[in-house]
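Q: Convert this sequence to structure tokens.
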Amino acid sequence: MSHPEPADYSRPNAAVIASQNDAFRRFACLGITPDQQIQGRLVVTQSLIEAGDGFVTEAVQATGAFDTFEPDNDPEGWHDFGAVTIRGETVFWKLDHYEASSDFRYGAEAPDNPETTMRVLTVMMARDW
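A:
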């Protein structure tokens, strides 16, 4: 059974979200300044920190450089998830979108609007998932 979308619902623009996610990820991980301000935070898990000397830096830089998006790993086209290998360990990264004014309690109603969306980029060991 399918449910019709409400008449006033418009799907967010996947290409815009992907572009903003890529720009935020490159800024947070590589220090590359985006063309427009994009709100967000970078978080790493404790197990990533415990992985050893320089591991976090390598994982974060690899996350920022990631560009292998395909239908299998990016079905919505948002560029919001990826996996990299660091020293033989699989590291996942995930971007979540929240309403900027909600203290991370509510998902973004318009994730393609950088003025109302707060991104949280989490970099973690695959085993944390």
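The CA atoms of residues 43 and 114 lie 19 Å apart.
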